[in-house]
Amino acid sequence: MKPFRSMLLLIAVILFVSPLMAQTHVIKITPLKLLPVISNLQLGYEGVISDKVTLGVDFKIALPSTVSGQEFDTDDTTDFETGLLNEARLTGISITPQVRFYLSDKGAPQGFYLSPWVRYFNYKVAIDALWMENQGNSDMTGSFTWSGFGLGASLGWQWLLGESVVIDWNMGLGITPTRIGVEGSVEGPLVTDLEEFINDANAELNGRPFVEGFLTQEGATVGGKSPSFPIPVLRSNLSIGYAF
User: Taking the CB of the first residue and of the last residue of the chain, which one, N or C, has fewer CB atoms within 10 A?
Assistant: First the structure.
């Protein structure tokens, strides 16, 4: 939680101190993130604090998306075994504070820039499913999370059209240490097979870096959290905004 507290302090500085110092403010939205395949609402703020430097922060919210009514893991043998996914729901957020150094003669907030950034993200898939077999039905609930705190740098170009319209494009690379978490529980006859399931799952994970055998069982519950492992990040945005 210490990196997250540091992130909150940094965001507080940008959102409360930067506007007091800023000569110009820019608010932005990234329309392509709203496409159905991506389904993210990304909003940004940028404040000019000197001729060449701005402070900003991007908020990206995963618009809640749900999958339901899907069968899975059907067994065609004489024993009747099949699963029904009642609902799988994705939610999440990422927060990316950044500093921009504008290198063009026009000065901030337009022209070519370099931008170091840090990022915190936390995403979750919550699952509600039903397992049906000859011994009876079992209810399964659980969640799969992945979260991390990393850093990187981008380069980009920002156009100021007229006095107020802003178009911003950037691309960058970063590294994000990430953790995977699993929580779940079972009610019904399937509980008797839970230990075998955990053993099989950990056997599949064995030999794989960072996630080897991290699942555990306690009664009818399953849980575990992997160690942090690095994931490379490619960041690209095309945003439009308003300067005032």
Answer: N
